[in-house]
Amino acid sequence: MSAPAQFESSAAAFFGGVRSALSSVFFLVLAGTYIGIGALAHGFGLTSWWLALSTVLVWAAPAQVILISALGTGAPLIEVALAVSLSAVRLFPMVVALLPLVRDDKTRLRDLLLPTHFTSVSMWVESLRLLPALPREWRIAFSNGLSIGYMGTATGFGFVGYYLAAELPPLLAGALLFLTPMSFLMSTARNAKAMMDKLALVVGLLLGTILTAANVQLDLLWTGIGGGTLAYVVHRLREAAA
User: Fold this and answer.
1) How many CA atoms does the CB half-sphere of 190 hold within 13 Å?
2) How many Cβ atoms sit within 10 Å of the Cβ of residue 233?
3) How far apart are CA 19 and CA 194, in angstroms?
4) Which is nearest to 87 in space by CA: 68, 72, 112, 111?
5) What is the pLDDT of residue 89?
6) Can you give the pTM of this predicted structure?
7) Mutual angle of helices 10-22 and 121-130, in 10-degree steps
8) Is the dihedral of CA 55, 56, 61, 63 positive or negative?
9) CB count, 10 Å around CB of 113?
10) Which of 20, 39, 120, 121 could cross-link 173 (Cys pair, CB 3.0–4.6 Å)?
11) Are 55 and 155 in contact (CB under 8 A)?
C-alpha cells in the first residue's frame, strides 16, 4: 500500500499510518508471531498482562522471546538483561537510518522519542518505503501511527495466543514464531542492493547455521559480527584492487 501524499492534520497522518499498518503484510506476520509468543509466555507460567506490558516496553519479538525463555528457565536477571540488551543493539543502526527521514531543522528532541522507541524491523522497513512520498511535516505522526498499528496488533494477538495456548500444538506455535525471522530475511534480501549487503547476508546464513549446529553460545551475535566484518573486508579489498 502506498502512503497518501497529503494529509489535512497530524491526526489524519497518524490514522493514515495506522491504516497502512493494518493493510500491510507485516500485520499478518505480527499476528502469527505473537500468537506463538503468547503461547510461549503461557507455557512458562507468565501472566497475559505481563506479556502485554513486555510487548509495549521491549517492542522487539526476538528480544521478547529471549526475555520470556530466560526468565522461564530461571536465568539470573543480570544475564537476562545482558542478552536482551545485546539483541536490541541491532536496532540502533535502524534508528540512525530512520531519523534523517523524519526530522528537519524545526524538529524538537521530544518529538523523536516515540519514533526512536517504536523503531522495529517491521516499522523500519515500511517507513523507508512509505515516508519519502510524504511531506516532511507529516512523517513523524505517520510513523507513530504505523508503529501503534503494529504494536496494537502484536499486543492483541499476544492475548489470543496466550488464551489459545492450551489448544495450540507445540509444532504450530513454533511454526508461527518462525514467521518473524522468515519475513525479516525476505525483507532484507529484497532490500540488499550492494554486493557487500548480499555477501553479508549469505555469509551470515552460512555462519549462523554452523554456529547453531555447533551449539556455540551467543551464536546470533557472532554471526552478525563475523558476517558483517567479512563482507566489509571483501568490499574494501575490491575497492583497493579497482
Assistant:
1) 10
2) 12
3) 32
4) 68
5) 82
6) 0.73
7) 120
8) negative
9) 10
10) 39
11) yes
CB contact set of 30 (below 8 Å; sequence gap of 6+):
61, 122, 150, 153, 154, 157
**Are 227 and 203 within 8 A, CB to CB?**
yes
Between the alpha carbon of residue 236 and those of residues 4, 35, 117, 212, 239, the distances in Å are 41, 43, 34, 29, 5
State the pLDDT at residue 10.
87
Out of 68-82, 144-158, 183-197, least confident range: 183-197
Q: Cβ(62)–Cβ(37) under 8 Å?
A: no
**107 grid coordinates:** 524538529
| Residue 22, all three cell numbers | 493494518
The set of cell numbers assigned to 115 is 519514533
CB atoms within 10 A of CB 84: 19
Interval 2-34: pLDDT, tens: 444 578 888 999 999 999 999 988 898 888 888
CB 165 within 8 A of CB 38: yes
What per-residue confidence (pLDDT) applies to 2?
A: 47
Q: What is the mean pLDDT of the chain?
A: 83
Residue 199 C-beta-side C-alpha neighbours within 13 Å: 14
**Radius of gyration of the chain from its Cα atoms, rounded to whole angstroms:** 19
Written as one string, the DSSP assignment of 30-59 is: HHHHHHHHHHHHHHTT--HHHHHHHHHHH-
pLDDT in tens, 108-153: 888 899 999 999 888 988 998 899 889 888 999 999 999 999 999 9
